[in-house]
């Protein structure tokens, strides 16, 4: 049914002019514009007129001006307001051609049936007293349903009728206000928010027309239902609802107040200045599968008193019962049944211990190639690393099929600068100095090509199972080694800069279930910023707000956490499904950008096939992974970073290049120049790491922002 027609029959009607029969698809304004312009614009169609009229809110003058400007016609034709003639093509015989002189023939009247008589509503409307209608409005170039209401307002006989003020559809409806208040009732008071206002500039300009006789703005939407009685203003006043006077203010949600930040900074300064304070380091343990990572770290924790003898005896008894007598130290870290049955670490395990001068968080990463993504996730949280080497099977781990090379390259690509290389299982080669020296020289050459500084590398022979050279030296056969013990090397790691003054950023690596409704615990590393209990933080992606109820750092409850800390946070959140591994917690005032396409500088590793435009890869950054496509090869760079070749057809092994990468979804990323750790990434293909890189420029991104809108109403 067209917007302005009330009398419509599918077969025919009782009116001689057949106005509604010849074409039911167009309104009267369409024919007025068409008849006015057809002499000037001969190729004009009714469909075009109808579409443009819709854009201009059925304003005839604006529509005519639009077509004239588009056709370059300056002379405005006389407006033809006569009733439209049928524009359909009919079959004509010889007699009709001669009698009508080529004019279209009117549709012949059909025999009237019961179904063709007007409805009761049509008869009532036709029999209305003409004195009660406003002919000026009916004949106006814009007929709207508002005219049905306004006709009685100008009649002197209806002075007692309330004047109807049209609803302002640009403001929230009463239902919207109620729903918003209900939604805010279930959120923390400080984190109440609403959706961002959509800008009007995204919509097509719609001209608001004013009726000269009534001064009423026409804002009736096209889908306004016919019939019904408009609500009077008096009823609105009785319900204390006023939709015409509203004031909306928008404020940005803050993580914490300025006074609270000063208090947190004072607590941090006091803690760091204390003589009892030990700088914190996150240390990842990497290496080929079966290199003895879990056994070495479990034995080290036992020697440091982090595991009591009773627990260790229990692990030893259970390991003997399962036929895995040598695995009892590994079970200190491998707690899952599947890990113990298979004898391999599958996920990153986190433990804590202290040296005389350092507070250490151990991240025991899996070594099996099937769990490389988990190894990457653990390494992104680390500041330093220990690379364990199996002295008895060094060649197997160091080959192209082993994980020693890939783990070392990934560590360097993900920002690890300090590395301890522990040559393990020396007891299985009878503590051979010659074998040890061969392994050291081979690894030194490889690590130097991987851009590790020689001064940041420390080599040490150990036996994780017997405990030799972990905390002390007892083996006479290894008296040839004059260096320090493993715990002394760990204690000598230098501590990097803590990015306290940058906006808060924390990547989520673990999620723990909570028995309390609305609470969830997450673990991860704070990359930058300062956070405390009671802070309001933003979850990205998802744009969900939450409140920090508890902070645990160094395995102890604390009131704050800073950049560099590996912490567990208990969050109060309305929708617990909004957070997942790979999410970023950030400052709502300065949120992390969401990016889908960017320019990057990459360095390729050993490739089975060259990288070409359109290559499909898996993108790994901080704790997230996402399918990606290399959409453009920009240039190949030389060792000095200068362009040596533009628009290459492919990128081969060990090559530095500039490329464009597109992800499947918007993801939380930073430029390398802003946040180094969040601007690094690796690319994997077919289960192997093919490249590592840094993000240099965003091509498609948006900034999250979290605001609260407060709407107040006042009645006059």
Descriptive notes:
The longest helix is centred in the middle third of the chain and has 17 residues, at 433-449. Among the domains are: 280-491, Rossmann fold (3-Layer(aba) Sandwich); 505-586, Elongation Factor Tu (Ef-tu), domain 3; 593-703, Beta Barrel (Elongation Factor Tu (Ef-tu), domain 3), CATH 2.40.30.10. The two termini are 40 Å apart. It contains 18 helices and 26 strands. 23% of the residues lie in helices and 25% in strands. α1 (28-37) packs across α2 and α1 (28-37) packs parallel to α3 (60-71). It has a six-stranded mixed beta sheet, with helices on both faces. It has a six-stranded antiparallel barrel with strand order 8-9-15-12-11-16. Strands 17-23-20-19-24-25 form a six-stranded antiparallel beta barrel. By secondary structure, the chain is of the alpha+beta class. The protein is elongated, with a radius of gyration of 38 Å. β11 (536-540) and β12 (544-553) form a beta hairpin. Residues 93-112, 202-216 have a biased composition (Low complexity). Belongs to the TRAFAC class translation factor GTPase superfamily. Classic translation factor GTPase family. EF-Tu/EF-1A subfamily. Keywords: Cytoplasm, GTP-binding, Hydrolase, Nucleotide-binding, Protein biosynthesis. One of its GO terms (biological process) is translation. Residues 1-23, 77-116, 156-175, 184-232 are annotated as: Disordered.
